[in-house]
Amino acid sequence: MPLAFHLDGIADVADKAIRDARAVLELRETDRLTIARELAHQAGIGHVLLDNLFERPVVTVRNVMGMLEVSYDVSRRLILKMASLGILDELGNRKRNKAWLYRDYFNLISV
Q1: Cα(51)–Cα(53) distance, integer angstroms
Q2: Alpha helices in the chain (DSSP H)
Q3: Would you state the torsion angle of the CA atoms of residues 48, 77, 98, 110, taken in this order, to the nearest 10 degrees?
Q4: Per-residue confidence (pLDDT) for residue 102, from 0 to 100
Q5: Is the Cβ–Cβ distance between 90 and 83 less than 8 Å?
Q6: Is there a contact between 37 and 29 (Cβ–Cβ < 8 Å)?
Q7: What is the pLDDT of residues 71-106, one digit of tens each?
């Protein structure tokens, strides 16, 4: 196969990687602004949770308790608030031990 064919393929992959990285950065900035605007006094821990979601896009209340070193109630309220803002989505319909997904980010990295 000609070298030009391989170089075109490499260029296409690189272009997609750049587009994907830009999309992730835009999502992060949009969600940071939403958190700053809507969470008021909890914006600080909201931003810490958001940063952690890029490493672990599925969380539970107990995970967030450990990440942020906060109580169960603070963790639960933060998750519910971020869900009401459209940042987190509940996975399934479990009554206990619910899991939450940072769906917009998950969709970006899963494609």
Answers
A1: 5
A2: 3-38, 43-53, 61-68, 72-84, 103-110
A3: -40
A4: 97
A5: yes
A6: no
A7: 999 999 999 999 999 999 999 887 888 999 999 999
Sketch out the chain's domains with CATH numbers. 3-110 (1.10.10.10)
**Around Cβ 41, how many Cβ atoms within 10 Å?**
7
Contact between 79 and 61 (Cβ < 8 Å): yes
What does pTM read for this prediction?
0.84
Show the tokens assigned to 43: 């914006």
Question: For the purposes of burial, counting CB atoms within 10 Å of the CB of 53, is it exposed (0-12), middle (13-18) or buried (19 or more)?
Answer: buried
Cα 4 to Cα 74: distance, rounded to the nearest angstrom? 56
Q: How many residues does the chain have?
A: 111
Tokens of 46: 């909201």
The CA distance from 36 to 38, in Å, is 6
